[in-house]
Amino acid sequence: MPQPDDTPAGSGRAWLIVASVAAALSLIAAIVATGLWASERGEASSIRADRASASELDTSYRDYATDVMTRLMTIRQETLTQDVDQIVDMIEGDFSEQFTPRRDSYEEVVKTTAVVADGVVSAAAVETSGPERAEVVMAIDQTIGNPKSKEDQDRQYRVRVTVNRHDDGQMKVSGVNFIP
């Protein structure tokens, strides 16, 4: 005599329950996997955005240091006072404490010797950086013209420039160190 559980209808119901449980587990696994995939994708996108932001900030540090050093290494008699004013506005800290008190004697020497110079940053790279500060290493070529000399003098410098970035986004150079 057949038992009630051994009937074909009973075994169909058992398979239906097993199939339903398997489908439910598969659905849960798919939802979890989709959530994990979306989360990882969002994190990867955030990392890419952070890298892009850091790269843009490095470019800003490099460009600012290049601007300051070009102004510092270029000397024009006609615009000397304005040029020095611009440099003083772009610097702070130790560099400002060294440069600003000597600006008058610097201007006087430049005027009395009638020296002119063209400075060009030939290469620059951010050595280290963070949200508030960067060290920029650069190579500078300078051509100096002096009325007492028959030929212009070419000079090359290697410098490490410290650039600070303030909360308002404004940048200032606080250090210039020549690299031997």
Notes on the structure:
By secondary structure, the chain is an alpha+beta fold. Helices cover 52% and strands 27% of the residues. The chain contains 4 helices and 4 strands. The longest helix has 66 residues, at 8-73. The chain is rod-shaped and about 110 Å long. The termini are far apart. The relative contact order is 0.12.
List the main descriptive attributes of the protein structure presented here:
rod-shaped, four-stranded antiparallel beta sheet, 180 residues, 4 helices, 4 strands, alpha+beta
Question: Which strand order do you get reading across the main beta sheet?
Answer: 1-2-3-4
Helicity range of the residues?
40-55%
For the sheet with most strands, the description reads: 4 strands, antiparallel
Uncertain residue ranges: none
Number of strands: 4
Provide the structure class.
alpha+beta
The separation of the N and C termini measures 103 Å
Strand content: 25-35%
Secondary-structure element sequence?
A: HHHHEEEE
Rg over alpha carbons: 34 Å
Q: So how many helices?
A: 4
Shape: rod-shaped
Mean pLDDT: 86
Write the layout of secondary structure elements.
Elements: H1 8-73, H2 80-89, H3 93-99, H4 103-113, E1 116-129, E2 133-145, E3 153-165, E4 171-178
Antiparallel strand pairs: 1-2, 2-3, 3-4
